[in-house]
Amino acid sequence: MPTIAGSEKSEEVSLLSEDTISTPKKLKSRQRIAVSNLRTPDKEVKQDSHENLAVDSLSDCLGSESRDEDQMRAVKEALHVSKAPSTIVCREDEHRRVFEFVKGCLDQQKAGSLYICGCPGTGKSLSIEKVVKQVGDWSKQACLPPVDTLSVNCTSLTKTADIFSKILEIVEPVKEDNCYSSPLHRLQSLFSQKQDSSSRMMYIFLSFCCVSVTSDDLTSVIIFKFFSRLIIADEMDFLITKDRGVLHDLFMLTIFPFSTCILIGVANAIDLADRFLPKLKSLNCKPMVITFPAYSKDQILRILQERLMVLPYVAFQSNALELCARKVAAASGDMRKALSVCRSAIEILEIDIRGSPGPESQGPTPDNPVVRMDHMAAALSKTFKSPVVDTIQTLPQHQQIIICSAAKAFRGSKKDATIGELNKLYLEICKSRVISPAGITEFTNMCTVLNDQGILKFGQARGNKLKRVSLRVDESDITFALQGNHLLTLGVHFLSSHCGRERLTKAGTNIIQRLNLYQLYANLIKLLWLVN
Ligand SMILES: Nc1ncnc2c1ncn2[C@@H]1O[C@H](COP(=O)(O)OP(=O)(O)OP(=O)(O)O)[C@@H](O)[C@H]1O
Ligand SMILES: [Mg+2]
């Protein structure tokens, strides 16, 4: 529950949100949306995300204590990687191409191979799972025999060649012939023989007679062995051996004259195709390749919004979700990471609610348990803590201000500026925070130090003031590095000039609460300034 109670605190917090996050007009519509969320969650949540409003949570309307825990649990569940989303958004094209490939093979009763690659967390396994289900539904509708599917995560194999025994298990569930030297040889031998077409005819006949036929029924009379098999080899990178023999043999299974193997290999290595496939090409078994690109900021945001839409209340401020999407897209485009950051932000909010400020706690407990920008920034910082962030955090205050000026200067398409231009921005920030600025010589020296540390980069120029400077670190790293305790001083200076210390002193009797409030102000102002 909220750590800070009382009208003065509420006044401070609402003042803060009105001044810095949204206008009073927006606040009015916020409340309307929060209430209507209860009735028409999907539509309204969508509306909120489009309008980018800070929205109150369900707890305003319910007023129960245990609801917080239940809500938090539900949000974490909705964001858990193991929770399969009902629809996969932002992968429509890839999904369609994979499905068309399998469908094409089944239609023509031919074997084939597909190689899917993409960075971690780009929805490869998830999409394949959906395709398998879709293929099952489609073959049923088309009165085709069910497609036997083998999904192997290659990391689970004790040795790489075990992939062949797994395939043999579905191709020949009842062993007929024990006189083969290895599962691979047996598969090669099976796929070299003519198919028993009676099996397909038998299936169609039984289906026609409305007899429910399962693959188990048919395999028990050993007439099923030549039906199509869909083989999914996920994490296929693990099959790479020194001589790459297993990988080659696997793909070559699809070119035997009577093979009905539809092989889909999934791996992270984008260049696997280039490294191993020339040989496969020469063997005439080069697979079709589909690449899953990293998710963009908009895609991550949309996926998060879709996943949260199942909840009848709003758990995140939309700008907090956007911050997460932007940072994750810039770092890797890994959806798994985005989900984990959001869950971590929920945990930080939980700490706030419980009123036990841990290291992550960034400010006073909100009345509405909604993940705010500061929660999200703390969660991101936890996830993306890097040497760059550490370096920025340990810099002297003036150098940090220079970095802030640079981040501001190079936002958008601008790639570099002169030292003079950067100095102008630096002076503006110092002025706004009532900090006496360093002179131009000292300023240039500090820029040189930052250049030596790899944070700024100098271009060539004759005069110092004309020297061009660019930023070598990610703007989001700066945002994360500069939120937190050490910014307190900057925040206090800023607040002193705008609100007056006396007013803040009156705000509460507990010194910790006051510090938290300062910190919240400082973080929010900093974030809004850098983000907007
Ligand atoms: N389009 C999406 N919609 C909803 N959730 C998604 C989407 N893409 C990814 N996810 C979530 O991210 C998680 C990771 O996705 P997935 O396992 O498909 O990644 P991957 O590309 O197979 O990664 P890896 O290469 O590490 O195996 C999924 O479990 C799912 O929860
Ligand atoms: Mg995967």
TrEMBL record:
Entry-linked SUPFAM superfamilies = P-loop containing nucleoside triphosphate hydrolases, Winged helix' DNA-binding domain
Composition bias (Basic and acidic residues) maps to 40-49
SMART domains named among the record's database cross-references:
Cdc6_C
InterPro entries found in the cross-reference section: AAA_22, Cdc6/18, Cdc6_C, Cdc6_ORC1-like_ATPase_lid, ORC1/CDC6, P-loop_NTPase, WH-like_DNA-bd_sf, WH_DNA-bd_sf
GO BP: any one term: cell division
Give an example GO molecular function: ATP hydrolysis activity
Pfam name, any one: AAA_22
Location of the region described as Disordered in the Swiss-Prot/TrEMBL record: 1-20, 26-49
| GO (cellular component) term, any one | nucleus
Please provide the record's keywords in A-Z order: Cell cycle, Cell division, DNA replication, Membrane, Nucleus, Transmembrane, Transmembrane helix
Q: Which CDD domains match?
A: Cdc6_C (cd08768)
Q: Which residues form the Cdc6 C-terminal domain?
A: 403-482
Where in or outside the cell is it found?
Nucleus
- The portions of this protein that span the membrane are 203-227, 247-270
Q: Which family does it belong to?
A: Belongs to the CDC6/cdc18 family.
Among PANTHER family, the record links this protein to: CELL DIVISION CONTROL PROTEIN 6 HOMOLOG, CELL DIVISION CONTROL PROTEIN 6-RELATED
Q: What is this protein called?
A: Cell division control protein
Look up and give the organism this protein is from.
Brassica napus (Rape)
